[in-house]
Amino acid sequence: MYQIIEKQVLTPVSKLFVIKHPQLAQKAQAGQFVIIRLHEKGERIPLTIADFDAKAGTISLVVQEVGKTSQEMGALKTSDQILDLIGPLGYASHIQNYGTVICIGGGLGIAPIYPIARALKKAGNRVLSIIGARNQELLFWEDKMRAVSDELYVVTDDGSSGRKGLVTEVQKELINKEKIQKVFAIGPAIMMKFVVETSRPHQLSTIVSLNSIMIDGTGMCGGCRVQVGGVTKFACVDGPEFEGLDVDFDNLFKRLNYYRDEEKVAIKKQHLCRLDNIK
Amino acid sequence: MNKTPRQAIPEQEPALRIKNFEEVALGYTEEQALLEASRCLQCKNSPCVSGCPVQVQIPKFIQLIKEKKYLESAKKIKETNALPAVCGRVCPQESQCEKKCILGIKGEPVAIGRLERFVADYERAHSTEKVSQVKSNHVKVAIVGSGPAGLTCAADLAKKGFEITVFEAFHQAGGVLVYGIPEFRLPKSIVQKEIEKVQELGVIIKTNMVVGKIVDIEELFQQGYQAIFIGVGAGLPSFLNIPGEDLGGVYSANEFLTRVNLMKAYKFPEYDTPVKIGQKVAVVGGGNVAMDSARSAKRLGAEVYLIYRRTQKEMPARTEESHHAQEEKIIFQILTNPIEILGNEQGNVKAIKCLKMELGTPDESGRRRPIPIPGSEFILEVDSVIMALGNKSNPLLTTVTPGLELNAKGNIIVKNEAGQTSLANVWAAGDIVTGAATVIEAMGAGKKAAQSIMTQFSKVN
Ligand SMILES: Cc1cc2nc3c(=O)[nH]c(=O)nc-3n(C[C@H](O)[C@H](O)[C@H](O)COP(=O)(O)OP(=O)(O)OC[C@H]3O[C@@H](n4cnc5c(N)ncnc54)[C@H](O)[C@@H]3O)c2cc1C
Ligand code: FES
Description:
The complex is a heterodimer. By secondary structure, chain A is an alpha/beta fold. Chain A contains nine helices and 16 strands. Chain A has two domains: 2-89, Elongation Factor Tu (Ef-tu), domain 3 (Beta Barrel), CATH 2.40.30.10; 100-256, Nucleotide-binding domain of ferredoxin-NADP reductase (FNR) module (Rossmann fold), CATH 3.40.50. In chain A, helix 5 packs parallel to helix 6. In chain B, a hairpin with a 5-residue loop joins strand 10 (336-343) and strand 11 (349-362). By secondary structure, chain B is of the alpha/beta class. In chain B, the strands form four sheets. Chain B has a five-stranded parallel β-sheet with strand order 3-2-1-4-16. Chain B contains 19 helices and 16 strands. The chains are: A alpha/beta, B alpha/beta. The A-B interface holds A 23-24, 27, 37, 41-44, 68-69, 83-89, 215-223, 225-227, 232, 237, 250-251, 253-255, 257-259, 261-263, 265-266, 269 and B 169-171, 207-210, 213-215, 235-237, 239, 241, 245-249, 251-252, 254-255, 258-259, 263-264, 268-274, 276, 346-348, 394-396. Bound molecules: flavin-adenine dinucleotide and FE2/S2 (inorganic) cluster.
């Protein structure tokens, strides 16, 4: 059992949890993820580590309430317990002084891009960050991101905060304006795909973090497999970060959608159970 | 001469059992067990014992059954086998102890496995005895992996006073016994009980610990562990590398079985993990893992094709398993080799394209080599495909352990039967050393490693 020692409501649909796990906090690095299971009947889901504090012995996870498990997690409170927490898993981001880098966080992806931007900054890079969301309500950590970036650009689909538009528009302008050595992008799969397409004409290396369906997270089941450069890779052990220029995103979308109907069944059941409780 | 025939074990009827995940074999009644035990000749040289990788004192435990001393009989088995209720169910006795049974020369061997199961189950139901912990010798040993190899090594050392901590990557201990072998062959409550017995010896099991990630071998030594045993199994799924293997609905057997067994997807949506296979399923392979996958898919309501490139004779699965599968109306599509998986617009499996094969001359394994018949291509419409092609060794821990010697397949090289590796004070056993093998072989090797650890540390202390 792992205790939640702090909960923050980042947006109406995303919550941040600070969880006590000293040994994991010691080991965690930017780019890695954990797997959680909330209760005896729960599923195992991967969550990228949004922050870690070795001294305090905590890690932070951010969840967006999209499926049954993330909704259940979103409902947890400070001092509640999480049954299982496994990690750190996957490889850490490859951090070095590349020169000038762009860090893009879309929606929930703002959380995991933050420690990467911070580490890149610390390594001496000129960090240009772009964070985006559908609207202002869904944006968070603008100040945190600003603190670790040389320049920060905020975009929303509806213009309710920052500039109206897409992260890729800013990305394109930055690429045209100055020599960029590397892009790091985390967000919805579709966003990462378009970020990669924006980089492609310049053959600009673009690291993406793939959120495929996982079970064990240790390379045992192969459920998380993705096509990278024509080769099958396991996102949990070979990734989660890959060179986006080589990733077959269409294949990723298909595999991500495989359990969509079952997710609906699970959510429906959960809501029915809640109704039962009310009665 | 005793003319009692080998006692059949009562089983759930095929038509009934394909609708549930409950155990297929129901176990002997006391009467059946006594009849079966009466067949044992109590040979002085006990050839059966030499067929057992952990040397269970077979004639002795059977003699105790004859005397109706069931609890003592169970104790006798447990002297050398920490998991009798498991072994009585999943060991390939036909190629081990029962193969050596004298009765087997002219007729049918004593049903040793069924008797083992009987006493283990009897003990579980009737014994109130708690295992007592031994006084500590203050030697800390870390065991990595809680499969049969790790659990056996842990139990044997704990009985001698070693302080044992088991590190397990999953949220539950047991290895393949909990994530691979299905409920209907090995009920998880039984595995759980056996694990509790090991814990009663004082063994601490830490789950959710992926060694190589949260802690590595060197750090374990720094934490004061004096010996380390690696029993991480063979957890790396194989694929065929044919087009279409990344479609939705293509599973490795590991993924499929883990969803169904460990995560209880057969109880979805009561349990949160789903498994979707559709109406028609192709399982590719001919081993025990393929049979377990096929029979699980059947119980989820699908029509199941088992695609295997040789004939039934060459199948590596236990005869009992393929027999059960056939009783359950699994369709054996033998002499068939998949060459492509076809998908629909959503990117999910629609069909599997196969070639017919014929058998040629024997290959390295001594089995006749399957050769494709030109122009024999055909398409089988299915909704999902489960690849049960065997497991290779998972590199997660071994590749971050400097100095640990591996062979070309990635298995840990051991210097001797005791399982000593190229690293001082590091032992290894089970599937990570041998490649995918059996529960009892993993246990046997775990035992030898325990013995070796005891010898080494009794010298020091
Ligand atoms: C579906 C299936 C059916 C089978 N049926 C039979 C049968 O009927 N009879 C039979 O005798 N054999 C059978 N086998 C084979 C048998 O299960 C294995 O040979 C045996 O379990 C091997 O034991 P082990 O202890 O070496 O490894 P495993 O049982 O694989 O256990 C290894 C454990 O180590 C853990 N682990 C792995 N990496 C790490 C790490 N880095 N850190 C911490 N923990 C880690 C794993 O999670 C796992 O729990 C079957 C296998 C499968 C897959
Ligand atoms: S999640 Fe199972 S192999 Fe990656």
